[in-house]
Automatic annotation (TrEMBL):
It comes from the Bacteria. One of its GO terms (biological process) is DNA integration. It comes from Streptomyces griseoflavus Tu4000. Residues 48-227 form the Integrase catalytic domain. One of its GO terms (molecular function) is nucleic acid binding. SUPFAM superfamilies: Ribonuclease H-like (SSF53098). Transmembrane segments: none annotated. Pfam families: rve_3. This is Integrase.
Length: 255
């Protein structure tokens, strides 16, 4: 259908980094049900690279099968315009892909990291989230008290292997996404500016962005019912909302 083809090409044009799977997910978020292969064909016919899917791994499949009981965490480094190095700490839920950005600091001391662990435990309790395991790497920034706080809350800390990023694949994927979609495209002035940008991205990631790992749903919002009215499909009126000065794009039906 011409209206869908035009929308697919518009999404590809306005978001050069999106592949056919990402565009397919955005269509589902808008209630437009088409096959991913259709999006692929539209892009191919227009001479646009559909961006092949990433291959999955056996370890990733194992993590997915245990997702309901798993969290993963990591530090993400970034540099401000003044050259200051800041460390972001984030935690992701394997089952829902919900991300929690728990803070950023220039000095990830043992006391700061321990305080973050306590905040995480309180957040999980407030959300009624039952977790049995948390995966982390062997970074020296994690003090023994970090593990103790989590163990006291009934959460067992699982260390990933040395030089084995696939053991924390879901978290590593989020770090790459955050860099590609936010940090690599934003000039960060200072810690306050970084935290503002991260809060916007956290809300966008949890409430709007579709995720392939959960059938293109959003962590905090299910997919809408597909549009069944042919007239509505023919007369699509999709509006774009820009966040962070156009770094992030959200698409919605006109009211």
């Amino acid at each position: 259908m011409r209206s869908i083809r035009l929308l697919v090409l518009r999404l590809a044009r306005e978001n050069p980094g999106w592949g056919y799977r990402r565009i397919h997910g955005e269509l589902l978020v808008l209630g437009i049900k088409v096959a991913a292969s259709t999006v692929w064909e539209i892009l191919q016919e227009a001479g646009i690279d559909p961006a092949p899917e990433r291959a999955s791994s056996t370890w990733a499949d194992f993590l997915r099968s245990q997702a309901d009981a798993l969290l993963a965490c990591d530090f993400l480094e970034t540099v401000t315009l003044s050259g200051a190095r800041l460390y972001v700490f984030a935690v992701i839920e394997h089952a829902s892909r919900r991300i929690r950005i728990l803070g950023a600091t220039a000095h990830p001391t043992a006391s700061w990291v321990t305080h973050v662990a306590k905040n995480l435990v309180m957040d999980l309790e407030d959300a009624g989230c039952r977790v049995r395991f948390l995966i982390r790497d062997r970074d020296g920034k994690f003090p023994a008290l970090f593990d103790t706080v989590l163990n006291d809350a009934g959460i067992e800390v699982v260390l990933s292997g040395v030089r084995m990023p696939r053991m924390n694949a879901v978290m590593e994927r989020w770090v790459q996404t955050c860099r590609r979609e936010l940090l690599d495209r934003t000039l960060i002035w200072n810690q306050r500016h970084l935290l503002h940008a991260l809060r916007e991205f956290e809300d966008f990631y949890n409430s709007h962005r579709p995720h392939q790992g959960i059938a293109n749903a959003r962590p905090l919002r299910p997919l809408p019912r597909p549009i069944s009215d042919p007239e509505q499909i023919i007369h699509l009126d999709i509006r774009r909302r820009q966040r962070l000065g156009g770094i992030l794009h959200e698409y919605r039906h006109a009211a």
